Automatic annotation (TrEMBL):
It holds the Pfam family Gelsolin. InterPro entries: ADF-H/Gelsolin-like_dom_sf, Gelsolin-like_dom. This is Gelsolin-like protein 2. Residues 53-103 form the Gelsolin-like domain.
Amino acid sequence: MYISPIYLHSQHKFFTYLDEVAEKDDDQSYQAKDTIKELLSDESGMMSFSLEKTGSIKLKDFDEKDVFIFDTKTEVFVFIGKDTSANESQFAMTYAHTYLMQTDHPLIPISCIIEQAIDAAFNFTSALAA
């Protein structure tokens, strides 16, 4: 499976789910307390998938060395840190799909967010402002 990086700007909907960004909430079913962040890591030598955090989730909660599955209940974001292993990157979407199929909302969209793309978009936007 090929995942094309999405070049993000600060107004991308990924950021609207994080608490430090002003949010326009037009979906009544969305509640910040419902957000879930799962960690996918092979740091131990074996792939592991575990609950990392629930509730209020901020951008600083994402580590560049791992993959995170960020579930807002209306969309799932697969955050691939810029220093993740090839194995973690390769299996990120598979784990996200498996995770989602075990929830009460298995048909919501999944978006892949690649940290390098966030950095590139920020650098590009900064250059335009100069």
